[in-house]
Design brief:
The complex is a heterodimer of chains A (283) and B (300).
Chain A: H1 2-35, H2 57-64, E1 66-67, E2 70-71, H3 72-103, H4 109-119, H5 124-139, H6 145-169, H7 174-181, H8 186-197, H9 199-215, H10 218-223, H11 232-239, H12 247-267, H13 269-281
Antiparallel strand pairs in A: 1-2
Helix pairs in contact in A: 1-12, 2-12, 3-6, 3-9, 4-6, 6-9, 6-13, 7-8, 9-12, 9-13, 11-12
Chain B: H1 2-12, H2 14-43, E1 46-48, E2 55-57, H3 61-68, H4 70-101, H5 108-114, H6 116-120, H7 123-133, H8 140-147, H9 164-189, H10 193-201, H11 206-217, H12 219-234, H13 238-243, H14 255-265, H15 269-299
Antiparallel strand pairs in B: 1-2
Helix pairs in contact in B: 1-2, 4-9, 4-12, 7-9, 9-12, 12-15, 14-15
Classes of the chains: A mainly alpha (283), B mainly alpha (300).
Amino acid sequence: MALERTQRSKVFLYLFIIVVMVGTLFPFYWIINMSLQNNIELYDVPPHFVPPHPTLHNFKSVLFQQRGTMKFYEAVFNTLIVSFITMLICVFVGSITGYALARLKTKWGIYLLFGLIGTQMVPPLTDLIPLYVIYSRWLGLVDTKAALIIGYTGWLLPISVWILYGYFQTIPRDLEDAARIDGCGRMKALFRIVMPLSAPGLAATAIYVFISSTNEFLFAMIFTSTHRSMTIPVALADMVGKYQIRYGDMTAGAVIAAIFPVVIALIFQKYLVKGLTSGSVKG
Amino acid sequence: MLTDRKVGIFEKNEALFAFVLVLPTILIVSFQYVYPLTYSFIISFFRSDIRKPGVIFIGLKNYIEIFHNKDLLLSFWRTIYFTVVSISIEMIAGIAIAVAFNKSFRGRGIARSLMLIPWAIPPVVNGIIWNWMVHPKIGVVNFILTRLGILERYKPWLADPHWALNIIVFADAWKWTPLVVLLILAGLQSIPDELYDAAKVDGAGPVKSFFNVTLPLLRWPILVTLLLRTVEAIRVFDIIFIMTRGGPANRTKLTTFYVWEVAFKHHRMGFGSALAYLVTLLIIAFVFLYFKTVKREIEY
């Protein structure tokens, strides 16, 4: 009787997990499925649950065809360059600030920390209106990759500091103290001892920043307009609602846009989950 | 020689060393937030309109205009509806899935990793995926529902004023529930098994021990998750831009969409800033509400 009950709950658990996983994965599977069909099969009713004649034609066509001022692959390059540089800046600046707030005694540290969280409460549009004025009229940065890098750094740096602050608190002090006693300066102790020990935290931050800037849309839409700086999400959004666009191109573009963040998230999932959840478990 | 002297200063003065380390962050954040937010707060009391010359101080007129515009007021209700409904779905589904994922089953590691996929997908792609899923002619949702007999004939979901916003809520919940699962799961894993054993000894069933043991201990992770998700939900933009552009009949025009329209399509920067500040107020109101609820819980 008791056994029966645990067995029944086990069956129920597996059923629930299966439903959840199908629900989680099916929409992503569906866009991949569509991207591998040709432009006639795509319109078929009923729809094909498996591509009848899988082809990469859509990918070739979306990447290399001229659309407006640009080709899609240029957007891919722009996105990767912007995300990579933003990632480097956020990890470097975020780590030294996170270290200072986690380890050094100051009266103002806690205020700065809360101020940084406060910036995340502001809707980006409140910020974007004045930034647009500053970037366009004063700095002449509209439609440059630099505008995106500066903007993304400002957006993601507070979160980077927050993740790294949490991580530095979990690292034992002893090694650092020992090095200091041996006559190692503060700067040297930070870069030679603390940073290497924090590699997982740095990795988590790097991945989070990279994925976030790869996926960002609103800022990029407002600040970019040509092949010089347009990123993947903007190039994709440009295709939506245009009648002359081929459906196959759009689905292939969507898969390309998703492939970088999804693959990176899956490869580094261990670090990523730790970084994302570090601040939420304990107060 | 110079570096030696520098090290000397930092050794003696910890606060100075800390200040040097945080200085870049302070500069970047000031450039990105402090100055712009002050600017947009001030400009929200001015008429800054591309159609009319000059920037003129008009006091509270921008704010008054918002409260006289019926559709803008409606957009605030839509924003609240979107936020409350999508976050309720995400929290309930997220907690349920996290509890299941905390049990041992085959393939748990893989299932947990795959959960990251919707979270990692760009919001623009999320919009495109659901555009195809609910497409009036070739959408698989229509196909499955008619095949199951739930739907009589194919439905143009996003063109239907009663459904459009709910479809967007659903698409948003699909993308963000996994994040809730991750955050809650991390909280669950920090609860020691002894507590459940003790509850079992006391004769508590699974339902009772969930409400009396698990939920109270999840208070902090739940609060953090709610805060994160609320801030994101109120400022939702990408997915609406992709899926409906505010239509049909403005039914999916949330306030942030109006801010974008007013400021960047009609170039009314002052009015847009005033509207954006009201959205900020809405976020502060939600945050305040959460903290008050949590505080009352702790006092009990």
